[in-house]
Amino acid sequence: MEKVTAPKALHWGVAALLVGLWACQSGGGTTGEGETDGDALEYDGGPLLASVGEQVMRPSTAAFASSVDGLVTATAAYADARASNAADTDAKLQAARDAWGTAMATWQVLETLQLGPAGAAADVVGGSDLRDEIYSWPTVNTCRIDQELVAGEYAQDDFTANRLVNVYGLDAIEYLLFYDGEQNTCAPQIDINAEGSWDGLGADELAVRRANYAAAIADDLVAHANTLTAAWADGGEFAVALASPGEGSAYRTQTEALDELIRAMFYVDQQLKDVKLARPAGISECGGATCIDELESKWARYSKQHAVANLRGYRMMFLGGETPEAGKGFDDLLRELGEDALADQALADIDAAIAAVEAVPGTFAEALTGDDAALDDAHAKVKAVTDLLKGDLVTLLTLHVPSEAAGDAD
Question: Which of the residues 50, 148, 201, 263 could staple to 205 if both were Cys, CB 3.0 to 4.6 A apart?
């Protein structure tokens, strides 16, 4: 994408480099990975940080917790109906699937907002790896889920504590609710096939176990959802920390806190653009014209809805709220620096990307077997968003591209 303010972006980039060289030469040391001892920003990021906590993280985590409660109720009702072979079993299954769709819609917004405990412990300030506990895609192993169906231990209190993330969470629930075939996804030599234990279940028992398994691991999500909600509630640990970086806060400086927002926003570049769109569309890392097996949401076919939700989460983070007027966002910081045209362009690019994804006909799977040009266009529109993110936006605001994305020129 042609940069809107390339000359000024270059000016700022040179200025940032000179400031960094001056800091090193004058003994103004760093705290690691490019962090300076204090903030040397030409704007006040405090209102943005407070707005993200209050108007983005708080309502988004609360919405997810509410949707998880709905999923627990719906999967339990379906499991009861399936066990008793009730007349409304099919209706209860559809209700459980709908509840899963609602929970996934709220979670996919949070995929782009992996701050604090949701983030990876190794990479994120305050990270507790809750994201993978809740939704581990693309780390999914349906054969292992099939093996757990045979073992029948999913209702034990310590089940998730003693298993890898690829057999529980929202991704496992998708497989359990949406796949109703009588065959498993394991190779013939795997024990449940070689020993005949899968065939020994029978179709009726298999359906009951799938329903019970889904209900059991849905219940396990409640504690994680409540942890996130508490962290970002009014007065919650991370809501306070984000609004007040410094001594006693998880975030040492405004720069560190703002960099954490940027790192979270890079989900749209590294996951949505490169993994969810480019791979299945055959644009990169595919090896064929298309790679439909690389799609997210293989069983429910919700890939498009997930992509839209990711972009809506990104949009809220950029704006610091639902609308430009509601919160203090990165757009406002750009305007403070006299970059009104860039702020307008960034928001226009985000809205164009959302529209392009929504315009893909049918599901992503259907598009890949028909008009895959629409998926290519969606990828291009998302790339316009991320080009600006890792170009002018981080440069003008003197922030940092996350280390895992630093070598990515795409």
Answer: 201
